[in-house]
Prior knowledge:
The protein is of the alpha/beta class. The chain has one domain: Alpha/Beta hydrolase fold, catalytic domain (Rossmann fold, 3-Layer(aba) Sandwich). It contains 11 helices and 8 strands. An 8-stranded mixed β-sheet has the order 1-2-4-3-5-6-7-8, sandwiched between helices. The longest helix is centred in the middle third of the chain and has 16 residues, at 90-105. The model has no long low-confidence stretch (mean pLDDT 96).
Amino acid sequence: MTQWNDPNTQAWIEQYEQRAVLHSVDVDAHQVSWRQFGDASGEPLLLIHGGHGSWMHWARNIDALAQKFAVFVVDLPGYGDSSDPHFGEFGDMIAVTAQSIAQLLGANTPFQLAGFSFGGLVSANLAAQGAPVKSLALLGPGGHGGPRRERGELVNWKRAVTDEELREAMRFNLWAHMLYADEAIDAFALDIHTYSCVQTRFRSRGISGRGLLGPALDDYNGKTLILWGAHDITCDPEYMMTNMIEPHANRKGIILPEIGHWVQYEAAEQTNSIMLEWFS
């Protein structure tokens, strides 16, 4: 992109980059970027973004969570500032991410873990494969294998020729996929979504449709929170409550009314409060 939609976005990025401790972790010819916020002596809380995302998916959550935790926010391989992925399989994504966490924290250091959308699927599989996860919070997780509720067909933004065409494509896609209320589709959200999409080099959509979430959660069998917006188009939250939450004593489900898929942006204050209570 050639310009930000919100004149304050660049200042926001510069401020947070100054505050962050940047970790570039080398794993099998990959460089995985982690940003650390908060008190380094606090309990680690790791945040994993969605499938067309970056660390900025958590822009409205870092400050609140960093008051209590040492917060580590990743750009997965093939996203944001991390290097291109030298793989195409989901298992490789999990392996590289797990190795980066072991190097970042130490192989046996327990941590709290939250993932959004595709990042929820990544998080569940990290936990299932033996990462020392104390508890999970999954926000609108992908890979559930249940019904979706499409709001509109996504626009191919890569065909945009002008900045205005790109802006309108991204705005429509935010409405169709990410955010429910029109007023939530603000200039900052547009900047985050545009930057993150342009920087995405890993194809996650086919993976998220393969029904991999349930088996991973069964293998983990630890304390798990799943949070949805009531208008999340990537699933039917009531169906998920019945089929993924109620049969399992270790799982808790919460549905926030009048909220879409990107729940931690559209309902940041509620989400922050829920996550702080859950991880405490």
